[in-house]
Task: structure prediction
Amino acid sequence: MSEFSIETDFYPSENGSPEERATMADVTISRGTEVLTSVDDAWAQSVRPSVRVACYPLAMWLADSWWRLLHEAGAAHHREQSHGWRMAHELRGVGGGFLWPRITFSPDGERVDITSRPSRRVLAEPLRFLSDSSGSVSTRAFSRELERFVSSVIARLHARGLKSSELEALWAEVQEERQSPANARHRALEAALGFDADDAPPELVTGLLQLEPVASAETVDELANATSSAASLRKQPWEVLKFVDGALRGGGTPARFAPPLSGSANVEASALPWQRGRSLAKHMRQALGEPSGAVSDASLETLIGAKFKTAPASAPLGLAFPSSGEHARVYFRRVHPTGRRFEVARLIGAHAMAATNSSWLVGSDAATANQKAQRAFAAEFLVPIAELVEVLGDDLSQEALERAADHFQVSPLTISSHLANNQIIEPDDVAALV
Result:
């Protein structure tokens, strides 16, 4: 059983364009053993695992969205995604006059999260999609299946005498770009910034590429995804370059991160981002001698080597980079005391997980693997989930969450999100509880 599959059962059709008629099929999309295209057909009075659509518009969408599907992480919270991101990552963006399931593809740089949500019964629509699940697959498995599917649609067109299609030309262009490391890198950065191919200002992409010798390609990817995940930066993407350029000229808060505490290296590098963050937080709690209760501001200040409570906040994203020796310069973006504590905890976790002491640390609202690990670390470090469950008991009321937030010196949103991420409440319930 493959991690991800798009299976087709072609059948003759007399409706639509020549390309659509040639590629009409029952399409079944699966993640492992779980079928994501299960549909309740009111007209046929049956439930089936596949959706009847033309594969041509789907293949066109996949080819056109190729770089964004693999490199644009988007925002951590789905409700904050931009319209452009949704059109390039949600299957309903395919259009073409067909009803598509509510399947979303969200890359994080390591894996691709695939979620499916059921649709409501609408009188004017005969189909209701049933799948309600979330999970991830490796980027390699995802891209390999997309490539196989698009190629199979082109082969189907050839078999039906339809050569030199728009899809074939577009796919050839994508393949040519993939063969050139320089072109592929340019396209990946455009996508991470939230742009379709050739839509990003060339000077913006060039400016980011010029940072790689100083900050690393991984850092540049984080900066690009930070831009596309924040509404304010999407409107003014140049602000990220201006901010980094200004930071390199001086300023920020002097800091000196404490060396990673004993036990940190025991975290499995192959674990999922949230697992890495959570495990590291538990290790650091034990090493600090604070296995329970709220982490004091004094402990946070010791770990980051800075008086963070009075530090200014004027940055569009969290940033720390080495200045000299073991010293660093830190830029904060959170103003509220609880938000600042969470931001500091994220940077501490990022430093502990960094490849070297000279690594740049970026904190943003993006859904990259690095940011996921940071958020998981900060949540578990500031609020151990086992203790939170004990504090709350069976009371999940707004008042109980606010008391827990006061106890751990975090926001109620941190409490409810931590509960949802640990599958104690449903993700959809988070907004209702804050």
